[in-house]
Amino acid sequence: MKTKRKRGVLAINGGKPVMAKPLPAVHIMDKEEIAAVSRVIRGGPLSGFAGVHNDRFFGGKEVRVFEAEFAKKFKIKHAVSFNSATTALHGAIVALGIGPGDEVIVPPYTMSASATAVLMNGAVPIFADIDERTFCIDPKSVEKRITKYTKAIMAVNLLGQGADFAKLLPLAKKHNLAIIEDNAQSPDATWRGKPLGTVCDIGVFSLNVHKAIQTGEGGILVTNNPTYALRAQLCRNHGEAVVDDMHEYDSGPIFGSNYRMTEVVAAMARVQLRRLDFLTKKRVALANRLTKALAKIPGLTPPFVHPDNTHVIHRYAIRVDEKKLGFSRDQLVEAMAAEGFSMSRGYVKPIYLLRLFQERKAFNRTGFPFEKNTYYNGSPDYSKGNCPVVERMFEKEFTFTDVCQYPYTAREVDLFVAAMKKVIAHKDELS
Ligand SMILES: Cc1ncc(COP(=O)(O)O)c(C=O)c1O
C-alpha cells in the first residue's frame, strides 16, 4: 500500500516534492528542422566534401550557406564548420601553428576539450586560475603562468558570459600571444557590444546537444584572418592530400583529418541559427526572474554579470556560502533533487586533476608532451592546490540549474524558488 507523502516535510525525509513530475528534457526541434533534414535526405548528397583540391574541398551547398549565414550573424569574415567544437578547437591550434615545444594557458573549469585540443597537437596545457565571480580565466593568474614557451591563451567564455578581455587583450599583445575564444557555451553574448567568439584571433562555437542551439553534434570556427581560416579548412579536410596542389598556400605541408560537417547537420544548423535570438531572450528573461528571487536569500549568489558583458545564461550558476546558508552545497543539491530539481555539484573536476594530467599519459607511456624532450624543457604543474579558486568552487561553492532553459516557463522557475525556500526553512532537518 502506498503511504501518503506529507506536505511541509522535506521530500528527502519522505515529504511531498514541490515538483511532482521530473522536468521534461529540453529538445527544441520543430517542423522546420524536420523539413530541412528531409530536403537534404530526399535530394542528396549527404556530404559535399572531398579531400581534393577542387571546389569540393570546401564542402556542399548546405555547409557553405550555413557558414555564410553564421559569418553574417556574428559579423565576422570567415566561418569554418566542423563536426564538433572539440575538432574546431584542434583546428584553431593547427591554424595558429601551435605544436610540440609550445604551451597554451587554459582555465581548468571548462569542458576537458578546451585543454585536450592543445594536447592533440603535441603542445602542453598550462592551467591558470579563474575569477570567482565570472568563473572565467583570471588574467592575473594567466600573467603568472607565462613562460618562454607560451604561444596562446585559451579564454573560455563560460556559462554564457565572456572572460575579462579588457585585461587579456593587452596582456596577449604585450607577450605576443594569440587568444582562442572557446565560445561553445556563450553564443549571442557580447563583450563591449561585440559578439563573443569574435573578440580575439579565433573563436569556436559548439552545436552539441547541450548547447543553446544544437544539431546533436557540430562546431564552428570563426576568424577574420584568411590564413587561419584556410589552415583550419586544411585541418578539417585532409590537408596532407590537398596542399601539394594548392599553390596559393605556401606554408609547407599540413597534417589534416576528417572533421567535416554533413549536409544534413548543416541544414539543421541553419534553422537552429535562426532560433538563437529567440532562445536567448527566453532564457535571459527567466534568469532575471530567478535572480530577483534568489538575491533576497542570504548565502546564495546569483550570476554576476561583468559590466563589459551581456550574459546569455547558458546555465544558471549559483554560488553557495555555506556559513551564511547554514548548511552545505551538497546538502542543498541533494535536498533540491528530492524536491524535483536536479542541480550540479560543482560543475567539472578541475581538469589538471584528471588522470591524464596526474599520470602524464597522453600518448601511451612516453610522457610526451609533458616531460623534457627535444623541443620542451618546461615544468607544467598539475598538483592539487595549483588553482585554489577552482578547487574551492568545485568542492564547496558552485552549483547550477537548467531551470531557465526554454521551454521551461515562469511556473517552473517559481516552483524552483519555492523548493529552495522550503529546503532553507527546514534546514535543521537536513542530516
Ligand atoms: C566550453 C566547451 N568547450 C568545448 C566543448 C566541446 O564541444 P563539442 O561537444 O561540440 O565537441 C564544450 C562542450 O561541452 C564546452 O562546453
Automatic annotation (TrEMBL):
It comes from the Bacteria. The keyword tRNA-binding does not apply. One of its GO terms (biological process) is polysaccharide biosynthetic process. One of its GO terms (molecular function) is pyridoxal phosphate binding. The keyword Signal does not apply. InterPro entries: DegT/StrS_aminotransferase, PyrdxlP-dep_Trfase, PyrdxlP-dep_Trfase_major, PyrdxlP-dep_Trfase_small. Pfam families: DegT_DnrJ_EryC1 (PF01041). The active site is at K211 (proton acceptor). The modification N6-(pyridoxal phosphate)lysine is found at K211. Keywords: Pyridoxal phosphate. Belongs to the DegT/DnrJ/EryC1 family. This is DegT/DnrJ/EryC1/StrS aminotransferase.
